[in-house]
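ok so I'm stuck.
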Amino acid sequence: MDKFTTLTGVAAPLPITNIDTDMIIPKQYLKTIQRTGLGKGLFSEMRYNDDGSDNPDFVLNKPSYKAAQIIVAGDNFGCGSSREHAPWALLDFGIRCVISTGFADIFYNNCFKNGILPIKVSPEDLSKLMDDAERGANATMTIDLEAQEIRGPDGGSITFDIDPFRKHCLLNGLDDIGLTMEKAPAIKGYETKLAETRPWA
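replied:
not stuck anymore, here's the structure
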């Protein structure tokens, strides 16, 4: 998993409440267990017209936001069914951070396991960040995980809270497998001792 330390990128405004996982990645894209290639299906029902062409009114199709790495969204982002394909699709598109006033628990947990930083902020702070994100080509934000700070295009900053363990995992690029591999010497030592003391096991 890629480390998340400091991210500076374009923030796309998505002021919609209750964006569920089927909106993030519709069911027809769930046939694969590959983590790559899902970016094309991200928000597909809003991104594409019925004939498959780009919907020019959708924010991620607008020239200023096509390379967005941050989404500023309405409350309860990631609700609905518990599909890990949702963070996979966001990551494959290039989104590394989602900011909202609230997230569905399963989606929130899945983000951390896939290298995406979900940030919870107050409604007042979200309103400020949404205004910043609506600046088009000037909608650049910096997310500093170590300092737990969001810096806007005008130099203003907002702090956020995060669980220390999850922060440690993101800063060091540790998913569940990575955490286990940190214990590899202890595991090997235990297996060696077991083989010596209980060779029949």
